[in-house]
Please model this.
Amino acid sequence: MQAQADINSNRAIAMNDSRPGPGGGWNGSSFAVFAGAVFNHQSQPAQLTIVIHELAHVAWKGTPMGQFIDINNGLSSAFWISRDCGTAVPEWDNWKVPQ
Ligand SMILES: [Zn+2]
Model:
């Protein structure tokens, strides 16, 4: 059960079909977001930030934007998501918030 171990040791993982749709982004097929114990220990507003981030992976996989999703303080970072959506920053990303 390595997959289960990965999910439990990581924050969250989005999985979907790797083939992009006609516009280069999400192809409309079903997808799943898995979250483990580390995710579960965050506040609900922080969990919402994480889910929104994972949905960016689904939406932009296979597009030029896809390679920037996990860039520190990029548009889909916890800092920008929390600022734009009124959610919270997960504790592991607190260091990225400008002081
Ligand atoms: Zn990510």
About this structure: Residues 53, 57, 69-70 surround zinc ion (CB under 6 Å).
